[in-house]
């Protein structure tokens, strides 16, 4: 059953012309992370690898390709968590770096803190020698077009975003049974400057504990935070629910209690995994026992052999 | 069922010379919050008022009197949660705001978001007419001296984090209809890095409120509270049928065992149970229930007096 990695590219409604890119994007992230695991890497190495691949892919709302805030700028959030020690690192509203997930990991490993925000996070990035990139390099034509469209007074960014969101994330278990999660996002379309969503908030955007499992979430951030979705799902697993049943219970609770839609990837320490969502679609991929699993619509589950796993 | 309002002034090794003023401060805040409820204010009004009273009191590490971060400036975090709708608002890393809890409430009520940080939060405050106060006004002479004293001993900070850091204020409340709410506000750890966000503004960590299970406000070693999502953990035990007292103790003990962190929490349940629990040396707390004001600062201490508003 071990190792295993499960990746998502965001829950929502993905326009047809972009769905193929989303699927191939999550598949290549899962392959890449699986290779790290097979090579003896830790679950933390694997989830960071998966998320960096997605951050570097302009089709997703993280790193390059992030949505823009109301001022047309890129502000990103990210979180990592290690299930063996419960150590975590997060950054919120960070600018001008290519891989927020890498910076989140540095916060975990190089500081005594768990979360750095805004200018303080940028300052820390500089002190660690993380290259500063021009904002322009993170912006795509697509993200600028959607920003402009949603500046119109009658626009509804929440609605539009539920249409096409793309927070990315991953969970993994390595051969030692250690779980980890990573989540990264550009946040919400046309958000206010300084808006922080669920992604960098431990328990909401992700959670990992070797006692129960790991979860990375995506969807309407404000709703996810209200029910602390990741932690909520793991509570159900602590009570004996399977990864799949716990994920469904958590998503159903979020829908009934606060009317929010979203999706999750979940693993338990034994390597059982789930990719579940209440939104119309979620691009996901999982790699286990040299097989790649992936899907986009509810009920969809394709499988293929990973040829170059060794 | 009667309304209850509980406040805390931070869990840490409160020195003897600060003990009486700390107790006095939490008692005054509980009285104030309770009087807001009695005069027809909402639950959110009541927890906001109680926390504002603590923010305005220089004895506590929040608002005026906050600890200084590494460059000698203040940086404040706060959150407020309405258990009926799960609506909440929070701010992290704001500077020139005397009452961050009120800004957190404005985020909840006036934006489609739930959390604002840094410059964005300051700009929002300005845009809704919240007065900016010069940084100096939030710094007390006493804190400046402490900061100077500690400046040279960053290495010792770890020890201080766990037991001695001046920490966080909060309030939880229940009304006669069974609704709950909570609020938490802090200046964070002394000599923290610029931009450090602790547990206080993070939902499920520094605070959580849900009419189904109850309301919690936490204090203590922020990074540890984050790791175990302490507020949410306590309420999950309540959901499993534990009393609020047992739920708090189990969760704080788990935090000690699993990540070696100490702290404290105040909790109310929709049925009117409440508890003030801590694993640090001390925590100043007070609770207004019916005509009685309960209070304490040392472990197992539970004193009472008639509640005069």
From TrEMBL, chain A:
Keyword Hydrolase recorded: yes
Question: What cellular component GO annotations does this protein have?
Answer: cytoplasm
**What InterPro entries does the record tag this protein with?**
ASRGL1_meta, Ntn_hydrolases_N, Peptidase_T2
Q: Where does substrate bind?
A: 195-198, 218-221
Q: Which UniProt keywords apply?
A: Autocatalytic cleavage, Hydrolase, Protease
Q: Which EC class heads this enzyme's classification? A: hydrolase
Q: Does the keyword Nuclease apply?
A: no
For the site Cleavage, which positions are given? 166-167
**Reactions catalysed, as given in the entry:** Cleavage of a beta-linked Asp residue from the N-terminus of a polypeptide; L-asparagine + H2O = L-aspartate + NH4(+)
GO biological process assignments:
L-asparagine catabolic process via L-aspartate; proteolysis
Q: What is its EC number?
A: 3.4.19.5, 3.5.1.1
The positions flagged as active site in the entry are 167
Q: Which GO terms describe its molecular function?
A: asparaginase activity; beta-aspartyl-peptidase activity
PANTHER family documented for this protein: ISOASPARTYL PEPTIDASE_L-ASPARAGINASE, L-ASPARAGINASE
Family stated for the protein in its record: Belongs to the Ntn-hydrolase family.
Name recorded for this polypeptide: Isoaspartyl peptidase/L-asparaginase
Q: Which organism is it from?
A: Cyprinodon variegatus
Q: Tell me the organism's taxonomic lineage.
A: Eukaryota, Metazoa, Chordata, Craniata, Vertebrata
From TrEMBL, chain B:
Q: Does the keyword Membrane apply?
A: no
Which chemical reaction does it catalyze? L-asparagine + H2O = L-aspartate + NH4(+); Cleavage of a beta-linked Asp residue from the N-terminus of a polypeptide
**SUPFAM superfamilies to which the protein is assigned, alphabetical:** N-terminal nucleophile aminohydrolases (Ntn hydrolases)
The terms describing its cellular component in GO are:
cytoplasm
Q: What class of enzyme is it?
A: hydrolase
Q: According to its UniProt record, which protein family does this protein belong to? A: Belongs to the Ntn-hydrolase family.
Secretion signal: which residues? Answer: none
MF-aspect GO terms: asparaginase activity; beta-aspartyl-peptidase activity
- Cite the binding residues for substrate: 196-199, 219-222
Tell me which residues are marked as the site Cleavage: 167-168
Biological process, per Gene Ontology: L-asparagine catabolic process via L-aspartate; proteolysis
Question: What's the EC number here?
Answer: 3.4.19.5, 3.5.1.1
- Protein name, please? Isoaspartyl peptidase/L-asparaginase
Q: Which Gene3D superfamilies match?
A: (Glycosyl)asparaginase (3.60.20.30)
- Keyword annotations: Autocatalytic cleavage, Hydrolase, Protease
Entries under Pfam families matching the protein: Asparaginase_2
